[in-house]
Amino acid sequence: MRGFDETLLDEAEETVRVRFVVNGRKVACEVAPRETLVDCLRDKLELTGTHAGCEVGACGACLVQIDGRAVHSCLMFAVQADGARIDTIEGLTESGAIADLQAEFHRRNALQCGFCTPGMLVNACELLSQVAQPSREQIRDALSGNYCRCTGYEAIVDAIDAVAKARSAGGAR
């Protein structure tokens, strides 16, 4: 008869195969059932632009897009995302989807230490995909789940507002 400790050890070693389309590429990896998506992305797929901050969904550093929606990857198990289309900051950068946001963040010094920046950009990307020209209040509301210790947010709001106006006027995507 197996002992209690052996059963726990066996369960701790169990893995599940998950498949995603990450940044346009089909990937599969073995994960523990309780492994978070952020840990899978960072540790298994080496996509370290997605940051693990608070690990309770309060800071927004772990935001990724799942099927086009911004999601806190620290609050989701990797197995829950099985079959999903996931876009990380690396994928959004490679595709050029956020090139104008990145340029405007840089131009306006809307990033300082940079830890929160990937989550801010993922969130801004989703906002601008839903609302072509959001008000400054809508931008602030959208960013309310992103925590930044460095910038004071005003430059971030300015950057997103400028990109929204440029896109609406037919400027860069």
Q: Return the average pLDDT rounded to an integer.
A: 92
Range of strand content = 5-15%
Strand order of the largest sheet: 2-1-5-3-4
Poorly predicted residue ranges: none
Rg, nearest Å: 18 Å
Largest sheet: 5 strands, mixed
Total count of strands: 5
Shape: elongated
Please give the structural blueprint.
Layout: H1 4-13, E1 16-22, E2 25-31, H2 37-44, E3 63-66, E4 69-72, E5 85-87, H3 89-95, H4 99-107, H5 117-130, H6 136-142, H7 154-168
Parallel strand pairs: 1-5
Antiparallel strand pairs: 1-2, 3-4, 3-5
Helix pairs in contact: 4-7
What is this entry, summarized?
Helix content is 40%, strand content 14%.
Task: Please give a structural write-up.
This protein is α+β, with helices and mostly antiparallel strands. Helix content is 40%, strand content 14%. The chain has seven helices and five strands. It has helices at residues 4-13, 37-44, 89-95, 99-107, 117-130, 136-142, 154-168; strands spanning 16-22, 25-31, 63-66, 69-72, 85-87. The protein has a five-stranded mixed beta sheet, sandwiched between helices. A hairpin with a 2-residue loop joins strand 1 (16-22) and strand 2 (25-31). The protein is elongated and about 60 Å long. The N and C termini lie far apart (64 Å). The model has no long low-confidence stretch (mean pLDDT 92).
